[in-house]
Design goal:
single chain, 270 residues, mainly alpha, 79% helix, globular
């Protein structure tokens, strides 16, 4: 793989991690379409770290307030006293379903992940999620009004993103919309909930960096992919939060459905 291919994959990872169009699906399908060699495990690990940096930098003030609220709640023995402390604990609670499922079925999802037609087919599931969320959107609840039940429902929807082609942000935003959050609040909670998931995936895949024998030779690719993922991720977080203030998710549903259908047609027709 060349450094330009690594940079493009970094841009793809950063954009599709936060736009509701599936990063796992695109990381499988883009190399398949252009007949590139599969991304090395160290490169996959490092572009995930790039997206983690993007979300940590973008939400640095929110995270600071959440950490401060959780700490003060513990000291005062009132862990759910403030919206910030509640949000912190709800992020932890909402991360449990996908974390348990991911650890229990890790080998199964690794096998599914490598099959491009399967990833393309699951892009249709993402489209269905997005359309369902828009059609059944029931309220205008703000993120500070989120409840434990809301967080757990969104966390359950996050489990679907273990399948390649199912967007983590798309599925969790849908879960938030079904629980009455407005679009921007659902997206904001989705991104915050994604931090433990991205961190966990990064730690697990980080083992591949440690085990890599040719890490020095891959360094230009890793640096290029990391920087590209961080920059594109940051920009796409800002874009989506701005977009959802006055637009629907139908554009992303149309994109994922079209990408899936076109890829499968070309694949099965040779």
């Amino acid at each position: 793989m060349t450094i330009w291919e690594a940079i493009i994959l970094g841009i793809v990872q950063g954009a599709t991690e936060f736009l509701p169009i599936s990063s796992s699906g695109h990381l499988v399908l883009v190399p398949s379409i252009f007949h590139w060699p599969a991304a090395s495990l160290p490169l996959v690990a490092i572009v995930h770290q790039g997206t983690l940096l993007a979300v940590l930098v973008y939400f640095r003030r929110d995270l600071g307030q959440i950490i401060k609220g959780v700490w003060q709640g513990l000291v005062q023995r009132r862990p759910l006293a403030t919206p910030e402390s509640r949000l912190g604990w709800f992020i932890v609670a909402g991360s449990i379903p996908a974390g348990v499922a991911g650890l229990a079925l890790e080998s199964f999802f690794e096998e599914v992940f490598s099959d491009p037609p399967v990833a393309a087919a699951f892009l249709l599931v993402t489209a269905v999620f997005l359309i369902t969320g828009e059609r059944l959107m029931s309220g205008r609840k703000l993120i500070e009004n989120i409840t434990l039940t809301d967080a757990m429902v969104v966390g359950i929807f996050q489990m679907f993103a273990l399948f390649p082609g199912v967007s983590r942000s798309g599925s969790t935003i849908t879960g938030g919309l079904l629980r009455g959050l407005n679009r921007e609040a659902a997206a904001r909670f989705s991104f915050l909930l994604g931090i433990p998931a991205i961190l966990g995936a990064g730690l697990l895949s980080g083992l591949d960096l440690v085990r890599a024998n040719d890490l020095a030779s891959q360094m230009p690719l890793l640096v290029g992919g990391f920087v590209a993922a961080a920059i594109s991720g940051y920009l796409c977080i800002h874009f989506l939060l701005t977009w959802l203030r006055s637009h629907s998710l139908y554009l992303f549903a149309a994109y994922t459905a079209a990408f899936s259908i076109i890829y499968l047609l070309f694949y099965f027709l040779g």
